[in-house]
Each structure stands twice: as structure tokens, then as C-alpha cells.
Amino acid sequence: QLEELKKQLALEGLFDASRKKPINLYPNAVGVITAPNSAAIKDIIFNLKRRYPIADIYFFPCQVQGENAPKDLLRAFNLSQAYPLDTIIIGRGGGASEDLSAFNDEKLVRAIANSKIPVIAAVGHEIDSTLVDYVADKRASTPTGAAELATIDRREIELHFQDAYEEMEQSIREQILDLKEDLENSKEELKKLLKDKIEMLKQKIALRNEQLESLSPRGILKRGYSITLDSNGKPITDAKSQKIGNKIKTIYYEGESVSTIDEIKGE
């Protein structure tokens, strides 16, 4: 039955390369559809934040195996279509073929085919294959691989900036050498030209510094985020780990404050 369904969907063109959408490697927001508290969601979030921390992550938790998994996956996928996402990652970790059967559901496959947002499938391991893998715009062998397909690595951006900076330096050296030949005949003109060039380059360097700053932890703090530490200096990521009366420290872009917990909310 699975092979017949695969042939039918292929004949309809749902797996054609011509209909696959390109992935935006500089996303503002990435949606993730998988099971809560799973290794898959932890791996995806960790690698997205490591590679491209300025992207927002929208998580749509659902069941990924069992009798209700197909309907729950479809519900989560349909919900994701209402959000301002650049890319959707859907998948789970490895397992037996019957454990992955929810990703062969015809309704889910057709929903992905009609998605207005590019979809990356990350179901199981390299050897695993489901219909969702065929219909998705990109297929990753693992959840970690999906995060790598969804974004460019910030280290690549930094290398691009470094290359651009070096090219500017080389360009300046070449221009200075050329200008020296005409220095005696056009001294005043040369001074004005160099002043304009240096000012322009300062602006370019300042712009690139701002872009790099936005990728750094301080850049994130500058946008209004903060880091809260417990009495041992460790970051607090779960309110339930704290107790009323505990002392906590909050670090801002400029300065820090010490507080006492008066109330804790579970969610």
C-alpha cells in the first residue's frame, strides 16, 4: 500500500524537483515540528542558536508516533502555516519503520506539498526514508543536519566580513601606490581624494562592526534581552528550579541587578 501511494503521489508530480522551493539561509524565523522533550528538538534548537542566533524559533509540539500521530502532525503543520516563518523543519529521531509510519500519511504529504513555506524534512537517520522526505523541499539525514540546511553558519558570515575587510585594505594599498606617482603634480587633489576615501571606508567598517555586534551576545542584550543567574552564577532556564526567597542576578546590556524571588509561575 505504501509503494502504491508513493507511485500515485509521484505521478501527480508531488515529488518533482521543479516544484521545490529554495531555502532562505538568512531566516528571520524558523518553525520546528516534532515531539516535545525529545532529542530531536534539543538538537535542532541547539544548532540553530549556535549557527544563526538572531533567528526566532517557533516550536509546534506534537506526537510523532502512535495511532494519533498522523492527525497530530497534520494539526501542528497546519497551525505553522499561520505564522511568519521563513522555513519549517519537520521530523523526529530514528526508529523502526513502523515508528516512522506517521510521516507516510497521505494527508500530511499533501499538506506539505501545498505549503506556502519551504519545508525541510528530518525524519530518522540516513538510511530511513518516508514520503515526507520525498515531498519536502529539502531532506536532512538527521535533525542536526536540518538545522544546518536551514541557516548559514555565523562563522561563514564572519569570514565574509574578514575577506571584505582584507580586500578593502588591499584596495587602499593599491590606490595609495598609484596616487603616489602623481603626488607632486596633484598634491592638494590627492589630499581631498584620500580624505573622502577614508571617510567612506570608515563608514563601511562601522556598518560591518554593527552587523557583527548584532550577532554577538552583547548585541542580543542590546536589543532588550537579559541573562538571569542563580546564586552559583549559573544561567536560570527553568523557573521551577528556583524557590521563593532565592537571590538572583540579572545582567543587562549595561549593568546588572540583584533580586529576590517573590513569586514563581510554573509555565
Account of the protein in words:
With 267 residues, this protein is an alpha/beta fold. It is 45% helix and 14% strand. It has 9 helices and 8 strands. It has a 5-stranded parallel beta sheet with strand order 2-1-3-4-5. It has a 3-stranded antiparallel beta sheet with strand order 6-7-8, with no helix packed on it. Helix 2 runs parallel beside helix 6, helix 3 runs parallel beside helix 4 and helix 7 runs antiparallel to helix 8. The radius of gyration is 26 Å and the shape is flat. The two termini are 43 Å apart. The model has no long low-confidence stretch (mean pLDDT 89).
List the helices and strands and how they pair.
Layout: H1 2-11, E1 29-34, H2 39-51, E2 56-61, H3 69-80, E3 87-92, H4 106-113, E4 119-123, H5 131-135, E5 138-139, H6 143-150, H7 154-181, H8 187-215, H9 217-222, E6 227-229, E7 247-251, E8 256-260
Parallel strand pairs: 1-2, 1-3, 3-4, 4-5
Antiparallel strand pairs: 6-7, 7-8
